[in-house]
Amino acid sequence: MRVFLASIPLEGAKVVVVGGGEPALAKLRLFLNSPADLVWFTPDGAPAALETPPAAPTPNARLPDAADLRGARMVFIALSDIALARRIAEAARKAGAQANIVDQPAFSDFHTPALIDRDDVVVGVATGGNAPILARDLRSRIEAVLPQGVASVAQLAGELRGAVKDAIPDFLARRRFWEKAFRSPAADLAADGRMAEARREMVRLLNVASAPRDEADQGIVHIVGAGPGDPELLTLKALRALQDADVIIHDKLVSAEVLDRARRDARRIYVGKTRGDHSVPQDQIEQLIIEEARAGHRVVRLKGGDPFVFGRGGEELEAVRAAGIEAIVVPGVTAALACAASTGLPLTHRDHAQAVTFVTGQPKPGGQAADWARLAAPNHTLAVYMGAGQAAEIASNLIAAGRDGATPVAVVENGSRPDQRTLKGRLDDLAALVARMDLTGPALLFIGETAALAVASDERALIEAAA
């Protein structure tokens, strides 16, 4: 280890920043939301009012003297005159402070790491001052997997720290408790902002740990949208859930590339469905989710697209909550959004479509039929899920309800994936268009004026060849 990252308490700490340019402002911003006593000197001139952070202290348009530096914990110096900067740094050291000269690591007592600030939780990445851009890149990668609500988890731990120490005097037993607590539903609930529920669950865990009894640990369920298949379209929250999961119960529409982002040792259970082939009935899927959670596991129910858009996620959420198990829903990029974006088809357009409707081509058996008169309205985009098998019936019903047979349509197969295909045509030719595609993957039908703006696969090939 070439450098040591220290955690310096900022309550009541005096921090001095010298300089008025952007490098000085960057240091100033680090402490604006901290409890530090921040003092600012701008001997080289203060920045314009529009460039000055609103919460910044009033700048002193002069050099700091010995009295100004007395009692400072850290002094940051960002001046173009390096000789002057070194003299100020030496004065700061004499006053008992640590000095940092920006972009001069050899003349600094410490270097500023790339920081991820989550209030009570702060993560730093340091390269010894040699490669600050590399440190920032690494910070971005870590930030992508660090929950925004992790500070709430730390806050909860701080509230209970004394009670835990009193209830569990043994150091090793206390450490085991915290390891368990930070991997429990309490931590998930706190990160999700549900502090009252998190506090109750943490207290329950503490009661169990301090007076053991026969009480099984209960897990938590995350109902997660996997998006359309492109792993880069996973939300950060979905990615974190996958990387924390003990058990992943997934659908057929979840791509292998998405599953590759999950924790390697997570158990994976396939419950995929295709038309006419439900390998695991819905009620058994719900029971499986509940059983795994009751066994103390972090369960991710991973569903293609968004779990609440034709994904039966609502039914699963009801079942889990009815069983008394905590559940968190993580939305995903639904297929209509992804397919439309990947083929350049705007779902709404000021000139062509003032409304968009997501509709399923396979309503519940015995359920209410679609209102074709409303769905046939002009200047309206229809995104039809699971409709390829009913293409002829859908087209016929829309035309009978008044939609022009010449209305543009587009069929997108495997949207957002490398094997995506898109064909365009007319509403009165929709069934033949679907038949020509000989679909083998999930497909969406788009019906409406905006479908004419999609880039079909043959058009894309011509564009790429010309390029």
Describe the structure.
This protein has 17 helices and 18 strands. With 467 residues, it is of the alpha/beta class. It folds into 4 domains: 99 residues, Rossmann fold; 61 residues, no CATH class; 114 residues, 3-Layer(aba) Sandwich (Cobalt-precorrin-4 Transmethylase, domain 1), CATH 3.40.1010; 129 residues, Methyltransferase, Cobalt-precorrin-4 Transmethylase, Domain 2 (2-Layer Sandwich). Strands 9-8-12-7-13 form a 5-stranded parallel beta sheet, sandwiched between helices. The chain has a 5-stranded mixed beta sheet with strand order 14-15-18-16-17, with helices on both faces. The protein is globular.
Q: What's the average pLDDT?
A: 89
Number of domains: 4
- Total DSSP E strands: 18
Question: Per CATH, which architecture of the largest domain?
Answer: 2-Layer Sandwich
Low-confidence stretches: none
| Share of residues in helices | 25-40%
Our Rg estimate from Cα atoms comes to 29 Å
CATH topology description of the largest domain: Methyltransferase, Cobalt-precorrin-4 Transmethylase, Domain 2
Number of helices: 17
- Text of the CATH class of the largest domain: Alpha Beta
CATH homolog superfamily of the largest domain:
Tetrapyrrole methylase, C-terminal domain
Largest sheet: 5 strands, parallel
Report the span from N to C terminus: 50 Å
Percent of residues in β-strands? 15-25%
Structural class: alpha/beta
Strand order of the largest sheet: 9-8-12-7-13
Morphology call? globular
